[in-house]
Design brief:
mainly alpha; 15 helices
Length: 384
């Protein structure tokens, strides 16, 4: 019993600074709302504004697998330091108020960097977890990222209302620098160099992860497409700018408690039950957006979106950790985020092209249909 308590205390000494790091780095996520509204004020067309979300998910698509693979081979503490400093520079470049052609690559570079935090930190925690506690341990990181995201979106709305774009971008650029301090608190992490690595294709096939990755791409295609013009849509409904950030933060705020609850439930009732529930209710979100008449309807959609994400992410990451050898976990966690990145790139492009033709309501309903296909895929292509 004493040995178990000592082991748990040691694990929390590792998880605690990672949680703080995740909160601070995710707070800069408010930059996406600022960038979308900034492009609107530049009178950029809808397809360009929706491309912002595509660039965000393109960075996720490339960065997640890249950083996950590097986390299985190199010092994870050094990787985290490099990620944070480079993301700070990319965020700070937006304080120069570039034209639309400069906004997209700056946001892409920031996401390319910061998206590596998830697979690197999850690989660290999963490596010291057991199957019966993995969902709970990983949920701490998911909840931390959600807390940072919610905080960032709330802060961004008020920063923009009070300080304008330049100082808002500069303020958010400081947060990853502060997060670097928590890397110094991390104990020595086990070096994975020299381990024999199972092939990527073999890891996916033997782990039975194909269906999960495909479903993740489809679900993200629908939800990212719906979100790619959501601030413009809220503006047409007359929602004040300062309130937009708070409404958008509801999803992330819901995910904080949801990650902790669903992480523990995935250890009890099984992984598939939890992630299937998340995939299923995701399809409701674009429908709610389509028939909203004001901020309350959008807020309800984001509440369900936060619940769905925390459920599917808690179940999915635990599922991956259970079925992946330790030396491949960084790669496989990264690949899951990359599969979501594929949907995140394609969905906004479809939404931006559809909206001038069928309006916001038609676009949202198409996104709901795509998300529903993802739910049906995960039901049939994964097993408990």
């Amino acid at each position: 019993m004493e040995q178990e308590g000592s082991r748990r205390a040691g694990k929390m000494r590792l998880i605690s600074p990672l949680m703080a790091l995740s909160i601070l780095s995710s707070t800069a996520g408010g930059i996406i709302m600022l960038a979308q509204l900034y492009l609107k004020d530049l009178l950029a067309p809808p397809i360009v504004i929706s491309m912002l979300t595509s660039f965000v998910w393109l960075g996720t698509l490339i960065g997640s697998t890249m950083w996950g693979t590097l986390a299985d081979r190199y010092s994870r503490k050094r990787l985290l330091f490099f990620i944070l400093m480079t993301s700070a520079v990319a965020t700070g470049s937006l304080a120069l108020l570039p034209p639309a052609a400069g906004v997209l690559p700056a946001v892409f570079l920031r996401v390319l960097m910061v998206t590596g935090i998830a697979p690197v930190t999850m690989a660290i925690v999963s490596a010291v977890s057991t199957d019966d506690h993995r969902g709970r341990d990983l949920s701490y990181l998911s909840a931390s990222r959600s807390a940072g995201s919610a905080l960032g979106k709330i802060i961004a709305g008020f920063l923009l209302a009070d300080l304008g774009y330049r100082l808002s971008f500069f303020s958010l650029a400081l947060l990853p620098i502060v997060a670097c301090l928590f890397i110094l608190l991390l104990p020595r992490v086990e070096d994975v160099n020299g381990r024999k690595h199972q092939s990527l294709r073999s890891s996916i096939r033997t782990g039975g992860l194909n269906g999960l990755y495909i479903s993740g791409a489809l679900r993200q295609m629908g939800t990212s497409g719906a979100a790619s013009l959501i601030f413009v849509y809220m503006a047409t409904l007359g929602v004040p700018v300062a309130i937009m950030g708070t409404i958008n933060a509801i999803g992330a705020a819901t995910s904080i408690l949801g990650a902790l609850v669903f992480g523990r439930l995935s250890d009890i009732v099984g992984r598939k039950t939890i992630f299937a529930f998340g995939f299923g209710i995701s399809a409701i979100v674009p429908v709610i957006f389509a028939f909203s008449r004001g901020g309350w309807g959008i807020a309800l959609g984001y509440f369900i979106l936060g619940t769905s994400f925390s459920s599917l992410y808690a179940g999915s990451t635990s599922y991956i950790g259970d079925r992946t050898p330790m030396e491949r976990q960084g790669t496989m966690f990264g690949l899951f985020n990359s599969s979501r990145g594929i949907g995140g790139v394609i969905g906004p492009l479809i939404a931006g092209a559809l909206t001038p033709l069928v309006g916001f309501r038609g676009m949202f309903l198409v996104m709901a249909g795509i998300t529903l296909v993802g739910f049906l895929t995960v039901l049939t292509k994964t097993h408990q």
